[in-house]
C-alpha cells in the first residue's frame, strides 16, 4: 500500500482502539497513531495530506459522536485525505453517530471511502455486549481491512464514496441529571483515575472528588481502578443500566460495514 496509514481514536475503555488496530492489521503497517483519549493529546491542530489514509474511530455516546470531541475534531484537517470512519457501540444502537462522524470529517477535507459500526461491551455494564469485540468481531474487522486494501490497490479510489446509515436531524440529546462516580473506602489514593480521566474531572488534590459537571460517564475510572473503589450509584444511572440489560442483554447485534 502506498498510502501512509494513520489511526485517530478516542477510546475510554479500550474497545474502539482494539477494533481499529485489528482493521489496520488487514490494511498494512501503521505509520502513526493518535490516541486522543487523554486531554493532553487533544491540544493543538492536526493536519493530514493526500497521501495519508486515516482510520478514525469513536465510541457511540447517546447515539452520537461524543459531544466533547466536537471542538477538537473541528481542528483536524484533511487535504483530499482518504478516510475510514468507525463507530463502536454497546449493543443497543449507533443511531446517527456514523453519519455524524462522516459529515464532521468530510466537512474538513477528508473523503470517506469506507465505514463501519462494530460492537463493544457496554461501558455501563458487563451484561450488555458481554466480551465484545470477540473473535468473530475481530475476524470481521481484519477482513474489512483486507477488503479495503484490495479495493485501494485495484485503483478504484476515485469512485469510492461511502454512504452510511443515519438520519437528519441527528438524534437529539436526552437531558439527564448530573451524575458522577462516587468513591468508597477501598480507595488507596493511587491517583490512576485522575491521570486516566479523559476530561480531567477527577481532582488531583483529592482523587475521591469527581466534578459532576465535567464527568462524561465514560466509566474509565471505574473500570481501571485497581481497588474497585469507584461506581456511579445515582438511581437514574442504575435505571438506564437495568433498561439496557433487560432490552439488549440477550440479543446480539452484528458489525455492519459500508464500502
Ligand atoms: C456516555 C455513554 C453513552 C453511550 N451510549 C451508547 C449508545 O447510545 N448506544 C450504544 O449501543 N452504546 C452506548 N454506549 C456504550 C459504548 O458505545 C460502548 O461501550 C463502546 O464499546 C465504548 O467504547 P470504548 O471502549 O472505546 O470506550 C455508551 C457509553 C457511554 C459511556
Automatic annotation (TrEMBL):
Keywords: Iron, Iron-sulfur, Metal-binding. The keyword ATP-binding does not apply. Pfam families: Fer4, Flavodoxin_5. It comes from Lucifera butyrica. InterPro entries: 4Fe4S_Fe-S-bd, 4Fe4S_Fe_S_CS, EFR1-like, Flavodoxin/NO_synth, Flavodoxin_dom, Flavoprotein-like_sf. One of its GO terms (molecular function) is oxidoreductase activity, acting on NAD(P)H. Residues 5-149 form the Flavodoxin-like domain. NCBIfam families: ferrodoxin_EFR1 (NF038196). Residues 179-207, 209-235 form the 4Fe-4S ferredoxin-type domain. PANTHER family: FERREDOXIN SUBUNIT OF PYRUVATE:FLAVODOXIN OXIDOREDUCTASE-RELATED, IRON-SULFUR-BINDING PROTEIN. This is Uncharacterized protein. It comes from the Bacteria.
Amino acid at each position: 500500500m502506498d498510502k501512509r496509514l494513520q489511526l485517530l481514536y478516542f477510546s475510554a475503555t479500550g474497545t474502539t482502539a482494539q477494533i481499529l488496530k485489528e482493521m489496520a492489521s488487514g490494511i498494512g503497517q501503521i505509520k502513526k497513531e493518535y490516541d486522543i483519549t487523554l486531554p493532553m493529546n487533544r491540544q493543538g491542530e492536526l493536519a493530514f495530506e493526500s497521501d495519508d489514509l486515516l482510520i478514525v474511530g469513536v465510541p457511540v455516546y447517546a447515539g452520537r459522536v461524543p459531544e466533547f470531541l466536537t471542538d477538537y475534531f473541528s481542528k483536524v484537517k484533511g487535504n483530499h485525505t482518504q478516510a475510514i470512519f468507525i463507530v463502536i457501540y454497546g449493543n443497543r444502537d449507533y443511531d446517527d453517530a456514523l453519519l455524524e462522524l462522516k459529515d464532521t470529517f468530510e466537512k474538513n477535507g477528508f473523503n470517506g471511502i469506507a465505514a463501519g459500526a462494530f460492537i463493544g461491551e457496554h461501558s455501563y455494564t458487563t451484561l450488555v455486549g458481554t466480551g465484545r469485540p470477540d473473535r468473530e468481531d475481530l475476524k470481521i474487522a481484519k477482513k474489512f481491512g483486507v477488503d479495503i486494501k484490495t479495493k485501494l490497490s485495484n485503483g478504484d479510489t476515485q469512485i469510492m464514496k461511502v454512504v452510511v446509515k443515519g438520519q437528519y436531524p441527528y438524534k437529539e440529546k436526552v437531558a439527564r441529571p448530573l451524575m458522577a462516580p462516587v468513591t468508597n473506602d477501598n480507595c488507596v489514593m493511587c491517583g490512576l483515575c485522575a491521570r486516566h480521566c479523559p476530561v480531567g474531572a477527577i481532582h488531583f488534590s483529592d482523587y475521591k472528588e469527581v466534578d459532576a459537571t465535567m464527568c462524561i460517564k465514560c466509566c474509565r475510572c471505574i473500570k481501571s481502578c485497581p481497588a474497585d473503589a469507584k461506581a456511579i450509584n445515582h438511581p437514574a444511572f442504575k435505571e438506564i443500566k437495568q433498561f439496557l440489560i433487560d432490552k439488549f442483554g440477550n440479543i446480539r447485534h452484528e458489525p455492519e460495514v459500508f464500502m
